[in-house]
């Protein structure tokens, strides 16, 4: 499990932590280790741009971003190459699932807009472990959507730096970024590498002051 420096309510799990979104034992273990509630809010991820506000734990329908001003309410998304992002402010926390389709659809600005519309400020963002440009090979139709973030993979093929694209969409928000590729790094689930159905989770919560 990775705890970003300077964040009060953010954690990025790895393969060993399990999919705490679906596995009650994994969720209990992560919750107890983090000192948070075992009752989490979660969504059915659809690679879109919808952001939902969580007032209580449980299923919140189809979306790819969750935010809440409820102190101590954990929110989670699950990934296996897509980018998990945690947002934190004085009175709000959020978690975002962003693959290339979500980034292209604007899930980050949509989440930021929903949070701002609720009257909350975001002070910092943590970009968790995701597939890196070393491994994220794409076709020209995807590369065309991410001009400025296209490079070469370790194998010399066209690749996209999704984390850099996400950072760009975050604008001037102070950022922490994990130095880990889920595909060639150790200890992470990777759909690109293994075609696995397993996921790791990111969890965000507004800590008690």
How does this model look, in words?
The chain is globular, with a radius of gyration of 16 Å. The chain is built from 6 helices and 13 strands. By secondary structure, the chain is α/β, with parallel strands linked by helices. It has one domain: CNF1/YfiH-like putative cysteine hydrolases, CATH 3.60.140.10. The longest helix has 11 residues. It has a 6-stranded mixed β-sheet with strand order 3-5-8-7-9-12. Strands 1-13-6-2-4 form a 5-stranded mixed β-sheet, with no helix packed on it. Strands 10-11 form a two-stranded antiparallel ribbon.
Counted up, domains total 1
- Give the full name of the CATH homologous superfamily: CNF1/YfiH-like putative cysteine hydrolases
Q: Give me the strand/helix succession.
A: EHEEEEEEEHHEHEEHEHE
User: Which residues sit in consecutive blocks of at least 5 with pLDDT less than 50?
Assistant: none
Main sheet: strand order: 3-5-8-7-9-12
Q: Helicity range of the residues?
A: 10-25%
Sheet with most strands: 6 strands, mixed
Nearest-integer average pLDDT: 95
The total count of helices amounts to 6
Question: How are the secondary structure elements laid out?
Answer:
Elements: E1 10-12, H1 24-34, E2 41-44, E3 51-53, E4 58-62, E5 65-68, E6 75-79, E7 83-88, E8 93-98, H2 100-105, H3 107-117, E9 124-127, H4 140-143, E10 150-152, E11 158-160, H5 162-170, E12 174-177, H6 191-194, E13 200-204
Parallel strand pairs: 2-4, 2-6, 3-5, 9-12
Antiparallel strand pairs: 1-13, 5-8, 6-13, 7-8, 7-9, 10-11
